[in-house]
Amino acid sequence: xxxxxxxxxxxxxxxxxxxxxxxxxxxxxxxxxxxxxxxxxxxxxxxxxxxxxxxxxxxxxxxxxxxxxxxxxxxxxxxxxxxxxxxxxxxxxxxxxxxxxxxxxxxxxxxxxxxxxxxxxxxxxxxxxxxxxxxxxxxxxxxxxxxxxxxxxxxxxxxxxxxxxxxxxxxxxxxxxxxxxxxxxxxxxxxxxxxxxxxxxxxxxxxxxxxxxxxxxxxxxxxxxxxxxxxxxxxxxxxxxxxxxxxxxxxxxxxxxxxxxxxxxxxxxxxxxxxxxxxxxxxxxxxxxxxxxxxxxxxxxxxxxxxxxxxxxxxxxxxxxxxxxxxxxxxxxxxxxxxxxxxxxxxxxxxxxxxxxxxxxxxxxxxxxxxxxxxxxxxxxxxxxxxxxxxxxxxxxxxxxxxxxxxxxxxxxxxxxxxxxxxxxxxxxxxxxxxxxxxxxxxxxx
Length: 446
Description:
Elements: H1 10-21, H2 24-36, H3 40-68, H4 72-79, H5 87-118, H6 129-139, H7 141-160, H8 163-190, H9 196-203, H10 212-226, H11 232-237, H12 246-274, H13 289-295, H14 300-331, H15 338-357, H16 373-400, H17 403-410, H18 414-445
Main location: membrane
Protein name: Sodium-dependent transporter
Subcellular location: Membrane
């Protein structure tokens, strides 16, 4: 029987974990959330929420994962024998499966845009062209299904290669490339005439937006962008040797996530303001407004191509972590079955994602409690699965694991440990419950 794989280096683990967190949450969702919620105040609250609540829960997942040294279900059974806490692992399996089923649809959209950028197929035919283009792409069943299938195949190929040969190798390539591409795009955006208005929008506070709703949205974004709550970070940490310091790794991942989110804002908002667009365009900011912005720049076709390559890399680094959760639980200790399991589960996820892919065309009239298949999958995972998973992880780390063993596992100072322990036991659960209730109320009212 094949042996359990491990990350070859600390930097490989950090890049893989950061890649799991830095996906559409940082590059697609963060800019439009900031744009529709006052910019700078939302950015400030997001940073505070990430460091004060998100980071401790991320560290809790790291502790549980490395102590378990197995897939999420098996590891939790080892840490709490005879108890039902292993259901956290199975919930991670289910919600990761569902997330990837619609996440791969967005991956297909990105591939459609990337293909057009490579072939210089963007031909602006007047006002509303990019909005019409986006609508036509997502409503075209064959284009979307082919894009979704190609995206899933790319994800499967990486995961079937294992930890060192697949996930770590891909992360070592894509994450540095992503950072380099971002730096190039940030520099280009900041050199536009009028770019300073976008910078002020991000960093000069407009305190009229400082309210409970913005605080809750920022906290929810911190959970979403760090990928806590679905056992992904727990799974990655299970491949870590005991000599690596978890605190430093968690802080590095959190800071990278914050940094990439801010860089995404610095790519988008200076360009949006410089060229006369509104920052509060919502989810269409990346797919509708940004192409129109790039079109007006010198060498705009090149920068548009660069951006969609970057977006594809970020989306893939997250998708491989979700498939890895499913595969690791599915094969348990039969590591020699990884390759076939990656294809089997990847195909199943693709099939389950077909209704989400067709939600904007063929299945647009089919609703579940007033939501399309795509929106239902998003709501079930983002508003229910992630918060509940994060809550259970926080409770498990704070009340089930033995305090002295956790202190030894973390290998940090007493002051840092006691601060983390207080947050995980008391502050984080309350914050998660508040976010969860707010999300449900918003969904009912909406």
